[in-house]
Design goal:
Elements lengths: L2 E8 L15 H5 L7 H17 L4 E4 L7 H6 L6 H11 L1 H7 L11 E4 L9 E5 L6 H4 L2 H11 L6 E3 L17 E4 L8 E6 L18 H10 L7 E5 L2 H4 L10 E4 L2 E5 L6 H11 L7 E5 L6 H7 L5 E4 L5 E6 L8 H10 L4 E7 L2 H4 L9 E7 H6 L8 H14 L12 H18 L6 H4 L1
Bound molecules: N~2~-(3-carboxypropanoyl)-L-arginine.
The site of N~2~-(3-carboxypropanoyl)-L-arginine (SUG) has 21 residues, from loops.
């Protein structure tokens, strides 16, 4: 049977804006209050999906949450018509309006942790939507994300959908952004590496910025996904780099199949971590462990360029490509480093640079925008086929974006009740395009 890695990219919401909501995420804070261009953001994301499709890869589309989250606003005591709720919250609690208007569900690396059937003892594909409990604007995503996951992966004989973990700091879970799977081929049992920022039983933790992923959350997911501990590792992120803006492990390390690219400061007690990875990896193809030195790329350059947030993809005819954000071409030394990687002895053959500036300005690079799901051909056939990209769906989505999205969104626009109506009408049409049914609260009344 053939196996594939399918990337499910988050479609960018019509309400994409810069609200400075993510303490610890340098780009989010430094671009707070910038005027956003939702149409450009969505088209940039769609072009990435199309570029990967054209490489011969299977590409999925993941629907966003609907914003603003009126349900949360109403649960906080704002009442009246939808327009009155917006009006009141805009006047009295603008921070809450921004949180409930965030398009952050576009970063689907944070949507869930996914364990492929080769790794789970019941032979099914397991999903746990992330609770994203560290940030208010993200903690409200899980409910809709869970419905979208179920509508995208509907067959209960093949896909298992777990509830998200309890909303408590002990179980802070940011999904696949802190999970890497090393395997010699997608169809084999892989080494599941869970990276956490904080362990409730240890004092090793960042001092400036929050650790978003806890060891307790990672362990709970490994348990419920029925992973074999012989093929599972729990590894602590270096707290010093969290304090330098590395708020997820996918900002400092990236793995695909038998290749692992990581910064020399990525992990706490790194030498032991890498030795253990080498010991536990069981593939017949050799593991390429590439440690990037601070002399080559400083942590600051890694955070600014998002080099490690590139997508590392296996090409249909062998070899790998690295899909990097175009910011890598503007930070000193990074483009040169990537060119040298292609020449060195490892599977990477080419670098593809893509413009994702609208997402990047909120701290979301190529890898943040996609949820990886390794699937057999039979499992792929069980995916909702309308959520897979082909040329006609690409054209349909481009036309849908051009029809519904604004090309300018400033903070003051969030108080405009028309934005809510525009967003609902766009997403209502989207659920038809992607065949999702009624996943949004406004469709359920
Ligand atoms: N690295 C991965 N996998 N994901 C990136 C997520 C970026 C997101 N930014 C934001 O939520 C910014 C929203 C704002 O400020 O408007 C976050 O910090 O959670």
């Amino acid at each position: 049977m053939s196996y594939y890695e399918v990337n499910f990219d988050g479609l960018v919401d019509p309400t994409h804006n810069y609200a400075g909501l993510s303490f610890g995420n340098v780009a989010s804070k430094s671009n707070a209050n910038k005027v956003a261009n939702p149409k450009q953001a969505a088209l940039q994301g769609l072009e990435k999906m199309w570029a990967l499709t054209q490489l011969g890869l299977h590409q999925g589309v993941f629907a966003p949450n609907c914003r603003p989250d009126l349900h949360t606003l109403r649960s906080l005591g704002f009442n009246g018509t939808d327009a009155q709720v917006i009006n009141k919250v805009a006047k009295t609690e603008p921070y809450l309006l921004k949180a409930c208007y965030s398009a952050s569900s576009m970063w689907t690396a944070n949507a869930a942790t996914v364990s492929p059937s080769c790794d789970t003892s019941d032979g099914k594909v397991h999903f746990t939507p992330a609770n994203l409990s560290n940030k208010l604007h993200r903690a409200i995503e899980a409910k809709t994300t869970s419905l979208v996951l179920k509508a995208t992966f509907p067959d209960e004989q093949i896909f298992v959908h777990h509830p998200s973990l309890p909303q408590h700091p002990l179980f802070g879970d940011e999904g696949a952004a802190n999970y890497t799977r090393l395997v010699d081929s997608y169809g084999h049992t892989g080494l599941a590496i869970f990276v956490y920022g904080e362990d409730a039983n240890s004092n090793v933790k960042p001092q400036v910025f929050p650790a978003r992923q806890t060891k307790q959350a990672s362990e709970a997911i490994a348990r419920s996904h029925l992973l074999d501990y012989a093929h599972t590792l729990f590894v602590q992120q270096n707290p010093d780099v969290i304090d330098q803006g590395v708020f997820h492990n996918d900002v400092i390390a990236i793995g695909n199949e038998n290749m692992f690219l990581f910064h020399e400061q990525a992990f706490y007690q790194q030498r032991q971590v890498i030795e253990e990875i080498g010991r536990k990896y069981q593939g017949s193809r050799p593991l390429h462990l590439i440690e990037v030195s601070s002399d080559d790329i400083s942590v600051d350059a890694a955070v600014k360029s998002y080099l490690f947030n590139s997508q590392l993809v296996s090409l249909p005819n062998g070899g790998m490509a690295i899909v990097a954000p175009s910011e890598c071409q503007t930070i000193d030394g990074v483009e040169r480093y990537l060119a040298s990687l292609c020449k060195a002895s490892n599977p990477i053959e080419e670098v593809i640079y893509l413009d994702l500036k609208q997402s990047m300005q909120n701290g979301g690079g190529p890898a943040c925008l996609r949820l990886r799901v390794a699937l057999s051909s039979e499992e792929l056939n069980a995916v909702n086929s309308q959520c897979l990209l082909n040329e006609s769906r690409y054209q349909t989505l481009a036309a849908w974006i051009n029809k519904h999205y604004r090309d300018r969104l400033a903070e003051s626009d969030l108080a405009d009740p028309n934005l809510l109506l525009e967003s609902q009408s766009a997403l209502d049409e989207l659920t038809g395009i992607l065949g999702l049914g009624s996943v949004y609260p406004f469709q359920q009344v």
